[in-house]
Amino acid sequence: MAARAVLFALGTQDAERVLACQDDDEVIEFVAEVEDRWDMNHLFELDKSWDALHRCFTDGDLAFDNGDYPLSHVILGGVPLHGGDDYIVCYVTADQVREIAKALEPLNGQWLSDRFATLTSDAYQGTGDADDIAYTQAFLPGLKNFYLTAAQNHRAVIFTVSQ
Fold it and tell me: In Å, how far are 1, 3, 103 from 118, measured between CA atoms?
């Protein structure tokens, strides 16, 4: 089953710092620092919904470069900052965050349910039943609000999950 994920909206200084990291260890140190702050106004916990959400926002696969922009950048899009298999950290710019927020705005639970029904990947570890769909749908309003707030505050975003 997928690990629990968190999105963090970064101010300009933190965005510059994470992009300046030279290796995986520095990226993880930076993420640990951001996690320690746990700024509830600038984070969104996705729990395990991130896997299904990414698949719904893209072409159904769990990959970094699939689907159409800007929805492809909601979860695993942008620049992957960590090269190891034990952690995923992806970065999207403040400009991309604005485009993501705009693309998410019209989406609702019915759209997500309809999209969920089209997923055919054997690699998806969820059940795909009504409970799984309802669980995933429950995260959509908060995700939309997170990106809208980040866009309004001109913040970049990192997606983080340990494998």
Answer: 20, 23, 20
Cα 39 from Cα 102, distance rounded (Å):
24
Q: How big is the CA angle at 104 (ends 11 and 88), to the nearest 5 degrees?
A: 55
For residue 42, give the DSSP letter. Answer: G
Mean pLDDT confidence for 137-161: 98
Burial class from Cβ neighbours inside 10 Å (0-12, 13-18, 19+) for residue 68 reads: exposed
Distance CA 5, CA 87 (A): 10
CB 89 within 8 A of CB 163: no
pLDDT of residue 1: 38
Report the CATH number of the 5-162 domain: 3.40.1760.10
Q: Give residue limits of the domains in the chain.
A: 5-162
Q: How far apart are CA 26 and CA 29, in angstroms?
A: 5
- Residue 47 gets which letter from DSSP? E
User: pLDDT digit string (tens) for 32-55?
Assistant: 999 999 999 999 999 999 999 999
